[in-house]
Specification:
Strand content: 25-35%
Order of helices and strands: EHEEEEEHEEEEEEHHEEEEEEEEE
Shape: globular
Number of strands: 21
Mean pLDDT: 84
Strand order of the largest sheet: 1-12-2-5-10
Largest sheet: 5 strands, mixed
Length: about 375
Amino acid sequence: MHCCKTRRFLSGMLAIFAIACGVSWAQAALPEGDAASIAFRREGEVDTFRKDVVLFTDRGYTLAECPDLLEGLSFLRGSIDLTMFRIEKSGWLLALTPEPIPRAASQHELLLELGFDPLDVGPESFQLFGQNEIDRVRAYWKHVLEGDEYRLPKWVVVLGFDNAQQIEPVPWRENTGELLYNGIRLPEGWPPDTAYAPGFDPLPVPYLEDPPEVLSIDIGRQLFVDDFLIQETNLTRQWHRARRHPASPVLTPETELERGRGDHVPMAAPFSGGVWYDPRDQRFKIWYHAGWFDGTAYAESSDGLHWERPALDVEPGTNRVIPGREGVMRDSAAVILDHWTSDPRQRFKMLLWGRPTGGEVYTSPDGKSWGEPTPTF
């Protein structure tokens, strides 16, 4: 259990001095009443909001600027990708997210939809970390109610609560969600509370530790990568360490796109893109960042080591397949080669995440010519 006293309005001679000096302090104050208490559902830590404090469990970013009004408040340090918590006691709560400007990972619209209002903390916005404009944040507040649950995607920092405690995950054997064909019972909520590991530790796999009493294996081939389906054996499993090829990196910034233009720094890397071997063409295929946070480019190879960049007509003279769009920052993309589709026009599928557009799905017959995107939400 963690406790932290909340801060109150400016009062007395300090407020009189501010008015006399023509400074508008009336709005630069914390909400009236008591702060809320929360219980958080993922690995996290409670700390004090102050300059140079580490902000996330999976990033080394530290607080660059701390408005006086927020200094000393408690905040929840968690993953930059997802913040999950439940309100244990009604009261006010603060949230920080980037300004709603192009390329920023802002949850401004979501917070407004959830009933949060902008809060004046002195400066209209301030630098949360780094030096980039897209990492400047605004403050929001809401009077939250006991029992409310929140699932805030990348990225929001929650602060100002009185108390916080971590919710212990429900033991896997007590799950009450969907029953799968093999006897595994899923939890009600998804992702499960256990689907997180701090840093770069492997994710826990709780159903391996608590398997069903009977497992159905009559539905097809089974993959024995672990002991989940094995009751007893006299075999020894041996794992081999992957070795870095001496030619690495096999793809480096060489073209005008990859060397970067404007504020797009040099980059030629998949970054969640994908590398597939296409048996139909007997070629390796890769989709990657050509210029940091720029559009998506395509290359292919006969051996996975020597890559060719075909000239395509999406942007003549380049190998770009998904062009950059004004006001949209291409973040990550995942490509799937669908061997089982009945529609040859959808043989390749791409889930692309952009800011502020969110997720979009593209399809292609060859991985080079992609249709118009379909929003996922």
